[in-house]
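Colleagues,

For the teaching module next term, I've prepared a clean inverse folding example: a structure given as tokens, and then the sequence designed for it. I'd like students to try predicting residues themselves before seeing the answer, so please don't circulate the second half yet.
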């Protein structure tokens, strides 16, 4: 895995340098749009509506339009925002684990301790685990201020970004205003039915049947020769990698001073004073590294199995397999390497 962000968890005078990694990934088969007559790739162009020219990424900026006026925001404008320059995961408060509604959880990240901060990392992990609390934190990632939950998962600290309160919709449905009467016998029968399905959740028991059948269909078409040889059109992309943070002050001294200061002030100090007291420095230097290309792999399906597909999903029907053999419709060779994703921090929207 490649770290997507580096910084430091800060609370009081304690500074825990960490590296951030995406904890999840998409397993869907990557499909492309092609011309059905000859299999040519369909690509979208970033064309200016005024002069009709195709615009490269380096000349594309973001803008806000209120309906009458447009404000252009350059990359320099966005980089100048204070929140984006910060490399701290700032702890706001520690709350009981059960007070966080799962509907607020967005994306999950693993936090790897810096080689010099293993003790501070373990101390924070153990404290959260023993107290059964979650740290609510603020940090900046990809030009956005984030609210997140810092919690324990096994022996690793996990950061889960949270939706802001105004991003969670209310379930205001007229049908819910009326409460129908439910008898005790109906409740008992419903509970009995639920009990018959009771069990422990084991995520490995479940699989994406649609993606499984899609891979079988692709393998069957490859074996039947129903594929087109196309030149590789994807190149390597570079991704910025930042490093920074470091353990500067003695851990026990920082803990003791933080506790003494919190006892001496009612509010526990402002965010600015906390940052001033901590002498951790963020290293914003970047180094370029080629992004690894990933190749989509699928198990080889036997010809006999492909020809007698049972139609478990719409893509696996035998009629579809027969139609796919016709020369009228062709598809991209799925063994071609997919495009390496640009780092989200450098993405520019048209």
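(Answer key — instructors only)
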């Amino acid at each position: 895995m490649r770290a997507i962000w580096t910084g430091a968890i800060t609370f009081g005078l304690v500074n825990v340098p960490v590296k951030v990694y995406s904890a999840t990934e998409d397993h869907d088969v990557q499909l492309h749009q092609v011309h059905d007559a000859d299999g040519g790739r369909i690509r979208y162009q970033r064309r200016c509506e005024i002069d009709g020219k195709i615009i490269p990424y380096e000349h594309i900026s973001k803008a806000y339009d209120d309906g009458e006026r447009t404000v252009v925001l350059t990359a320099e404008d966005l980089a100048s925002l204070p929140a984006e320059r910060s490399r701290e995961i700032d702890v706001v408060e520690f709350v009981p684990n059960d007070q966080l509604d799962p509907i607020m959880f967005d994306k999950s990240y693993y936090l790897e301790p810096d080689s010099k901060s293993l003790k501070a990392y373990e101390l924070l992990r153990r404290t959260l685990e023993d107290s059964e609390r979650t740290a609510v934190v603020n940090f900046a990632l990809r030009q956005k201020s984030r609210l997140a939950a810092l919690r324990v998962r096994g022996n690793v600290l996990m950061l889960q970004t949270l939706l802001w309160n105004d991003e969670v919709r209310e379930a205001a449905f007229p049908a819910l205003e009326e409460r129908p009467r439910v008898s005790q016998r109906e409740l008992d029968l419903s509970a009995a039915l639920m009990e018959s399905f009771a069990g422990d959740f084991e995520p490995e028991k479940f699989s994406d049947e649609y993606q499984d059948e899609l891979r079988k269909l692709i393998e069957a078409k490859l074996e039947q020769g129903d594929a087109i040889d196309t030149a590789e059109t994807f190149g390597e992309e570079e991704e910025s990698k930042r490093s920074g943070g470091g353990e500067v002050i003695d851990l026990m001294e920082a803990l003791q001073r933080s506790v003494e200061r919190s006892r001496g002030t009612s509010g526990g100090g402002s965010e600015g004073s906390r940052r001033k007291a901590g002498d951790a420095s963020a290293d914003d230097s970047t180094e370029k590294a080629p992004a690894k290309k990933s190749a989509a792999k699928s198990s080889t399906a036997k010809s006999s199995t492909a020809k007698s597909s049972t139609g478990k999903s719409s893509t696996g029907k035998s009629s579809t397999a027969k139609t796919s053999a016709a020369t009228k419709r062709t598809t991209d060779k799925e063994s071609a390497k997919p495009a390496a994703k640009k780092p989200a921090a450098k993405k520019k929207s048209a």
